Amino acid sequence: MDMKNHINSQMEMSRNVHDMQGIDKLRQAAQSGDKDALQEAAKQFEAIFVQMMLKSMRKAQDALADENSPFNSQQVKFYRDMHDQQLAVDLSTRGNMGIAELIVQQLSPGKDGFMPASALRENANLAGLSRQESMQYQTPTTAEGAEKQVNQNASKQAAFSSPSEFIATLLPHAQNFAKQIGIDAKALLAQAAVETGWGRYMIHDAKGENSHNLFGIKADSRWDGEKTSINTIEFEQGVAKQQKASFRSYDSFTDALKDYVSFVTENPRYKEALQNTTDPKSYFEHLQGAGYATDPNYAEKIMSVLNSDTFKSALSFGSGGGE
Q: According to the 3-state scheme, what is the secondary structure of 5-24?
């Protein structure tokens, strides 16, 4: 029997029961490049997941079942579990759940064009997608190495405890600078909320000092101030990819707002956006189109936050507070 027939035979056997040894053989065949084996192994893992889900549901049902009922006997439960096991296999074989397809995409060599698990979103927060502390490095022996170590230890930490505190603290400062470009201050805060996850994922350097970077502005060659390097998410042809980038650091949120105004007014490519500041939706669409952000849904996310109940509720607490 050749390898192909052997795998087909193994597939038929593993569809009837969850034979872990058979699944391991399928895994080995999948690693050798056999696409059919990979698909079958993914279906088997999906079946195991579905069976675990059904088992949990049955436990909840058993807690409410009548102990004296003939349908609650151990014999009935035994055959019921066998039925659920086969049902899980059938569901995964037909592709009803879609989990197996995702597994195949994740494990296929050279597979491209799908969203990685690390790009899961939380409350429309782009910056929060890359929240993690970088790995520790060996003690550097040069000044350049020392700078790299400081950057590698950067992290994202909370600077505000709630959206209400975020708005109450920043709104008075945002109003002063929003007038300079003719945009509603609330729109700027919505953008800052998307970039920082309502201030919960602010970039902090290795010493734990807040960079006060509200708008995700990077430290390119035009920036000669302090900067902090950290992992972030960028989109290439609509696909999210993680990469390391340097971001500008400020002494205060006021400085961050001031630099934002300078950043968009001094850069010619944002000229058209500045001509549409009276309409926040149009402004952010033009800002995105000019390359301010790589996320294809950037403007939509900002408007979603601006029009959200969370924003309205936080705004109702009024302005005030300090840095």
A: HHHHHHHHHHHHCCCHHHHH
